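Form 7-S
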Amino acid sequence: MRKFLLLLAVSVLGAAVVFAVGAATRPSTAQGYDPTLGPEIQERILDGYATLELSQSEPTGKSEQQPTTYFTRGSDACPNNISSNIKVNQNCLNLSDSDLQGRAQAQNETSITVDPNNTNHLLASSNDYRRGDGGCYGEYSLDGGRTWNDTTLPNGFVRGGAFGGNARQYFQASGDPSVAYDTKGNVYYTCQMFQRGIGTTPNHDLSSAVYVFRSTGTSRT
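Output:
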């Protein structure tokens, strides 16, 4: 029994020496950022793009990876999705109003934000004119921007009696959107809603307001 323990001790010691020698001769390499190894506060306050960059491996001298094939089906994986055409505007010109041709194709004042806790989640905002006048629309991706879905915010009217005690206040247009994530993964979308007034319509109402929407899911709702 003593002989067996002695042999076992010698074997373990030999393995330790070999490991130590191997470790001493092995060249050191820089390691990418691993958020699972750092404090929780570090993971939350790091910008999503910074986290992505810090997580990349060292350059190998190879050419940059080519973009992956674009798939038109969105990343939402809707169970009842019967179409592969993800529309974020209209494909055709508005031929009925010659002075407004192409208006429904327009999008501007865009912004985009990345979930700091999951860089596959992206949310964008834009003025969208698909209905003929400005509206706050959102586009989101759940696969790092490879595919996109669009979403409409409830910006046609608001409830709550803030305008003269009415149950609903209808707005003619909306725009100037912006989006941002907080460090906990909640995303915020701001939108200005307004009436154009007598200069454009027969409605004298010039009411306007700025609304903030918050999503605590994956930017889809």
